[in-house]
Amino acid sequence: MIGIVSDNAIALPNVFPTGTTLYDPTQAYNSYVLFSAPDGNTHLIDMDGNEVHRWDKFGFPPEMLNPAQTDGEKGHILVQLKNGNSPFGNIFANQEVGELDWDSHVVWRWGTQAPGGKARQNHDISRLPNGNTLLLTTIDHPVAGVSEQAIGDQRIIEVTKEGQVVWSWTVGDHIDEFGISTSGREILRQIYDDGGKGFGFLTINDMEPIGPNRWFDAGDSRFAPDNLVIDSREASFIAIIDKQTGKIVWRLGPDYGLDDAIDNPKAPGLGTVTNNALRPTLSLKTPRPVDQTSGQHDAHIIPEGLPGAGNLLVFDNEGPSGFPPTRLSAQLGSRVLEINPTTNTIVWQYTGIDSDQPIWGFYSSFISSARRLPNGNTLIDEGMNGRLFQVTPSGEIVWEYINPYYSRQQLGLDRTVSTNWVYRAQPIPYNWVPDGTPHAEVAIRPPKNSEFRVTPRT
């Protein structure tokens, strides 16, 4: 057992190692990992950090398909085909998305059939059991109660293999179902009165079919396998869309009762309120009632066959979010939460503290993801720092990888900067790729950071 927790690159020192920095094959779930990087490529790596395959297209996110969805063909992925490897801003205005095979041949594409002739896919894409594809896209139109002028909104569409749109759902049509307060609506209106545009006024960053689950089997129709889980980065809510009616049938947030906590500092599960302008110091105990999330990503129901199946897993960024803005802790730190969605109870969580680090030792204010693994571990993408790692249920880090694929990006600033951000990471079983694809499983034991030195060069 390695049992070593590595200080990571979150503090962004000028010099730090990249690639796999620690690895315990006896405790890690051993697989490939798929991600797209700012270099405009999609990379498949093994546990030792070796790149075993590359596609020269970017996915936002990339999605490798189960061979059961591709007539047994292995190594097919969904990505952006045009503009996907352009500077960061253009991934929201891509012209085409599609499916590539292992050799990067296009086997399906969609975009010219879209309204306006461009796919404009962003934040999520998913292949359905019936062979159709779900895409989260951007559209421009007025949103009632927010702006009389056309603004960026988002639409989920289901597209057949032939390119026909057979189902759609538009975010702005359901604004009254998201629990945004009157004051929050006024803030939204002010943003767009001042000329705000964007790629989605609530930034829906996740769209996952629920899939077969124990709640539906027990008679809870809210969790019908075809229903979709979404979450809003800007408004800090998670919700389930009824695929048949289009209605929101389950929701967490945006109001988590923190105003009540200010009046009652001993409110159950909220910890101690230390400052009315700050977020309460949240409890580390589980189980407990769900508390505030802020700017969260990758909310989804854990699939059948995995530990925790049926529970909701979400990366709680604790990034600036909300209308009005949510309170943030004085010591910022992200969390991964596993939630029983029928009781709204946190049954497991991960924070930096669980790896014997300060709370800020694990933090990404935007992007990021978390996925449950077959052995009970969780693969986490600390996105803004390009750090991928695996933790055991107790929080021990048993694999860590720092994305070495950098590029210069503008990222909303007036100049470009060097970055290795990773929007989402997907674990890939060995049998999902063509036979003979290599992989290494050699333990990597890092030195103690307090003793690690860069040798002077003459």
Structure, described:
With 458 residues, the chain is mainly beta. The chain has one domain (34-333, 341-349, 363-374): Methylamine Dehydrogenase, Chain H, CATH 2.130.10. Helix content is 5%, strand content 32%. The protein contains 3 helices and 28 strands. It has helices at 182-193, 214-217, 258-263, and strands spanning 19-23, 32-36, 42-45, 51-55, 63-64, 77-82, 96-100, 106-110, 121-127, 133-143, 147-159, 165-170, 204-209, 228-232, 237-241, 248-252, 288-289, 297-301, 312-316, 335-340, 345-350, 369-372, 378-382, 387-391, 397-402, 407-409, 417-419, 426-428. The strands form 7 sheets. A 5-stranded antiparallel sheet has the order 1-25-24-23-22, with no helix packed on it. The protein has a 5-stranded antiparallel sheet with strand order 17-21-20-19-18, with no helix packed on it. Strand 26 and strand 27 (417-419) form a beta hairpin. The longest helix has 12 residues, at 182-193.
